[in-house]
Design a protein that fits this description.
- The chain is of the alpha+beta class.
- It has a single domain (2-127), classed as Alpha-Beta Complex (Nucleoside Triphosphate Pyrophosphohydrolase).
- The protein is 19% helix and 37% strand.
- It is built from two helices and nine strands; from the N terminus they run E-E-E-E-H-E-E-E-E-E-H.
- The protein has helices at residues 41-53, 116-127, and strands at 2-9, 12-13, 16-22, 32-34, 56-57, 63-71, 79-87, 90-91, 100-106.
Length: 132
């Protein structure tokens, strides 16, 4: 079984979670991405969010939320995504970069348009009273 190691940025406002849709994709994903060789979770989070949303994560505000695993969307059976999630404060104005087609705030009723691992994260946040 192959595991894809990803880091995700959890940003919740008014019971909704920040999600993005990459160019050429049909589903929305919690912002973040794959770790590069030798990177820590924090370094991956800071780099990926700068690349996707054009904001700077404030590194001393990073807080672990949880780790979730599910079948990887669009991959052959048995390829698992491990998503390690963090909340953090950021500086700047969020805007989509060249790889992101759309930024959208989603809530629990939007499960049908997110990835399998994001569904697990949405359920966790809903159970904790953070997501509407």
């Amino acid at each position: 079984m192959k595991e894809v190691d990803k880091i995700a940025f959890i940003e919740i406002k008014n019971g909704q979670i920040l999600s993005t849709k990459s160019k050429g994709k049909t589903k929305y994903y919690i912002p973040g991405g794959k770790r590069e060789s030798g990177e820590t979770d924090e370094q991956t989070l800071i780099r990926e969010i700068a690349e996707e949303l054009n904001v700077r994560i404030v590194d001393n505000t990073i807080k672990y939320v949880g780790t979730f695993k599910a079948q990887s969307d669009g991959a052959k059976e048995g390829v698992i995504v491990k998503m390690t999630c963090y909340k953090a404060e950021y500086d700047g104005f969020m805007e989509p970069t060249s790889e992101i087609e759309e930024i959208r705030w989603l809530n629990y009723k939007d499960l049908d348009i997110v990835s399998e691992v994001d569904k697990k994260i949405f359920k966790f946040l809903k159970e904790n009273g953070e997501l509407e």
